[in-house]
Amino acid sequence: MNQAESYSILVVDDEPDLCEILRFNLEMEGYAADVAQSAEEALEMIPAGGYDLLLLDVMMSGMSGFALARQLKNDVATRELPVIFLTARDTENDVITGLNLGADDYIHKPFSLRELLARVRAVLRRTTARAATSSVIAAEGLAVDDARKLVTIDGTDAQFTRTEFDLLRLLLSERGRVFSRQELLAQVWPQDVVVTLRSVDVCVTRLRKKLGRYAARLITKPGFGYAYEETD
Q1: Quick one: 65 and 36 in the same domain?
Q2: Is 11 in the same domain as 125?
Q3: pLDDT tens string 38-63
Q4: Among 114, 132, 150, which residue terminates a domain?
Q5: How many C-beta atoms surround the C-beta of residue 223 within 10 A?
Q6: Exposed e or buried b for every residue in 69-82, given b needs 16+ CB within 10 A?
Q7: Hey, how many other C-beta atoms are within 10 angstroms of the C-beta on 118?
Q8: How many alpha carbons fall within 13 Å on the CB side of residue 184?
């Protein structure tokens, strides 16, 4: 069996002709492909579709592609669904917005079908490899099990709220990187919840209290943000 046959892709675009062109070419490559001509239609299809990749237009009537991606990334059931944005919008801010929403790639219109298919293959390779790796992120005696939504400290289970868990997972996954409070708000807190930068400080304080002897690893970089750093 062609490896592509095991992947299912949803194309979301309000241009019917483009949807059909993409569906035809994806199917010619061996993928299973469906189309939705609005973000609202896609939302109805995704829960039951079991898709491996979303090809998503940004500018659509009704809900935008950015809004759809934000909603999917804020839902634990769909947050790991890979997204490639297809869009005529090519300003730096638009690209940054898409990537900050968790997009796996960003392709400008007009594009060649050969390029698009190559990028689809590349994203599917990356996400397949990522899924095959362990769901546990560990540093010294601290471990975050994403599959079981469990944190252990020196082998003992610890109780964390969802926000505390997501914040710790993010910091541990990119140890040493300094995240600004704005970045943490964007990546950890739901977009439909009104919170302030102070919420990040409060959550970090709670995390430190729960981390015990690892509390000092969660450092503050004054004027920049927060990071998790291991000892040398």
Answers
A1: yes
A2: yes
A3: 999 999 999 766 899 999 999 998 99
A4: 132
A5: 6
A6: bbbbbbeeebeebb
A7: 11
A8: 31
**For residue 89, is it left (φ>0), alpha (ψ between -120 and 50) or beta?**
beta
Which of the listed residues 76, 98, 132 is the one where a domain comes to its end?
132
Tell me the residue range of the domain where 8 lies: 3-132
Q: What DSSP element (H or E) covers 142? A: strand 142-145
The full DSSP string for 67-119 is: HHHHHHHTSTTTTT--EEEEES---HHHHHHHHHTT-SEEEESS--HHHHHHH
How crowded is residue 222: how many other Cβ atoms within 10 Å of its Cβ? 5
**Could you check whether the bond before residue 110 is cis, i.e. omega within 30 degrees of 0?**
yes
**Shared domain check, 142 and 54:** no
Encoded tokens for 61: 């009537």
Q: Do 217 and 158 belong to one domain?
A: yes
CATH of residue 27: 3.40.50.2300
Asked if residue 216 has pLDDT above 60, the reply is yes
Q: What is the CATH number of the domain that holds 155?
A: 1.10.10.10
Which tens digit of pLDDT belongs to each residue from 144-170?
A: 988 788 899 988 999 999 999 999 999
Beta bridge partner(s), residue 142: 139, 153
For Cα atoms 85, 62, 193, give the angle at the middle one, nearest 5 degrees: 80
